[in-house]
Design brief:
alpha+beta, 2 domains, 6-stranded antiparallel β-sheet, Rossmann fold, 18 strands, single chain
Length: 297
């Protein structure tokens, strides 16, 4: 069997780059041929992934943004390699959702054990792919607004400090949500379309499912007071964390395979933690579109 290992040298603390020899030796116990590739840019990473049809497995390391780049590269391929992921970013929401350790040796062990699961993928306007979240509103820009150098030095604390800005100046987004049998105008402090249990490094959506063919649509309710629903965001997340169930007094919970969010061009959608496209979007679920190594349990 043939595998390629692609890594982002800028992601995390650079630990992966220091241990390339060890990683290659371990992968060679499973694969006959192992190629190592250091990505030079986002565009380079996507391009390399888009030419991975000849490999049985594409192993990669990086954060949520790197994972999105890999998905963008392989999603349109007719023959897609099995994915293996070594999380090394700041929030690692996708790694948490897949129950993968940030310890690269433990994550490697998952790949070597060879348990494969199928996973849904989202596509926006038939061209922009995503793995776990599309968001708009308060706190949605924190992940890409926070400077890389600060994230490298402070880790998750960098997101906390950056999020304080939104705490004192919450945003309300206006959009019309449409899917089969549903059409409603909304004004919300935050809207999330998720295929994950974890967002922003916080595991709160315990009812989320990775491969049921549906997205969870979480529309946090706008409050009547000055804070514009900021307490509903906190209440929703806290109920998810401690009660393992989101409370409907804080957030409207919906499910759809395909949906449209009609919005003006001044609304920017955050896609897998990165700045995305603006305005009206249509989102489709590509059921069981990829295969990835995950823990046996």
């Amino acid at each position: 069997m043939k595998a390629i290992f692609i890594y982002n040298p800028e992601s995390g603390s650079g630990k992966i780059k220091k241990n390339i020899t060890y990683i290659k030796e371990k992968l060679k116990t499973k694969y006959d041929d192992v190629e190592i590739y250091e990505s030079k840019s986002k565009e380079d990473l996507i391009e390399k992934a888009s030419k991975s049809s000849s490999y049985d497995a594409l192993i990669f390391s990086g954060g949520d943004g790197t994972f999105n780049d890999i998905i963008t590269g392989i999603a349109a391929l007719e023959k897609r390699p099995v994915l293996g992921y070594l999380p090394s970013g700041t929030a690692n929401d996708i790694g948490k959702n897949l129950k993968l350790s940030k310890n690269y040796k433990k994550a490697l062990k998952v790949i070597l054990e060879g348990n494969i699961m199928k996973h849904d993928v989202g596509v926006i306007n038939d061209e922009h792919y995503f793995m776990y979240v599309v968001a708009a509103g308060t706190f949605s820009v924190v992940s890409y607004r926070t400077k890389r150098k600060i994230k490298k030095n402070l880790g998750k604390l960098a997101y906390l400090f950056e999020g304080i800005k939104d705490l004192f100046n919450p945003e309300v987004v206006e959009f019309k949500l449409k899917f089969a049998g549903y059409e409603e105008e909304h004004k919300a402090p935050l809207v999330l379309v998720v295929n994950s249990k974890s967002v922003g490094g916080i595991k709160f959506n315990y009812q989320g499912h990775r491969n049921d063919g549906y997205f969870d649509i979480l529309v946090f309710k706008k409050g009547k007071r000055k804070r514009k629903g900021i307490f509903n965001i906190f209440g929703g997340f806290l109920s998810g964390i401690f009660c393992k169930k989101l409370k409907e007094r804080n957030v409207e919970i919906l499910k759809a395979k395909e949906l449209t969010l009609e919005a003006t061009k001044d609304i920017t959608w955050c896609i897998d933690g990165e700045e995305g496209i603006k305005g009206t979007i249509t989102i489709k679920n590509l059921h069981n579109h990829i295969q990835i190594y995950t823990p046996k349990n």
